[in-house]
Design goal:
With 192 residues, the protein is α/β, with parallel strands linked by helices. It has helices at residues 26-31, 51-62, 74-79, 111-120, 138-144, 149-152, 168-183, and strands at residues 43-47, 66-70, 86-88, 99-103, 125-128, 155-156. The protein has a six-stranded parallel β-sheet, sandwiched between helices.
Length: 192
């Protein structure tokens, strides 16, 4: 079998496959599987075991993040052990880099506590899943714990790119895409 860099390569029954040239962009390299590995230090923490958290952690691993599930409830954590992530009982700083922290259930009674811990850690980004048309439950939960208003303002809500997400998979995809865009200094969407 010949490589894509060989001008004479062809796929049986199809036209010749063009070679990669030195002036092709890195995006072209990615399409052909020749992209460099991602920079270490990406950590994604999904807080609370949920269908969205499971998919978010799965996609995050494929996107080069080290996935971590934070589940303070020991019974729920046992159920989540088959997730492709480390399971921890609280949000903390990570030695391999500041984490992106995504809270996937805003109805849990531990909401204020886990967000307070996330804001006190070296987290790069903190967000809570939720419909922007409904009151934000994290604001009173954090205020009751004495968290300063400027710290509460660091919490992003809603999260992810606005693609009209409705299913757990769509929410996870929009969230990971939004985090990647933000980390890379891009607006997201179809504008380049």
């Amino acid at each position: 079998m010949t490589s894509l860099n060989d001008d004479s390569s062809s796929v049986p029954g199809s036209a010749s496959v063009p070679s990669l040239r030195a002036d092709d962009s890195s995006a072209c390299d990615v399409a052909h599987g020749a992209a460099p590995e991602l920079t270490p230090g990406r950590v994604l923490v999904a807080v609370f075991a949920s269908p969205v958290a499971e998919l978010l952690l799965y996609y995050a691993r494929d996107a080069g993040y080290r996935p971590v599930l934070v589940e303070p409830d020991a019974d729920r954590a046992k159920v989540a052990l088959d997730v492709v992530a480390a399971v921890e009982d609280r949000v903390r700083s990570h030695p391999d880099g500041p984490a992106d922290v995504v809270v996937t259930d805003h109805h849990r009674p531990e909401l204020g506590l886990v967000l307070r811990d996330a804001l006190a850690s070296d987290a790069r980004w903190v967000g809570v899943m939720g419909n922007p048309r409904h009151p934000a439950p994290h604001i009173p939960a954090l205020a009751e714990l004495g968290v300063a208003p400027e710290e509460i303002a660091r919490v992003h809500r809603p999260i992810g790119l606005n693609i009209g997400s409705r299913t757990p998979a769509e929410i996870a995809i929009s969230t990971i895409a939004g985090l990647i865009a933000e980390r890379n200094g891009r607006p997201g969407g179809f504008e380049f």
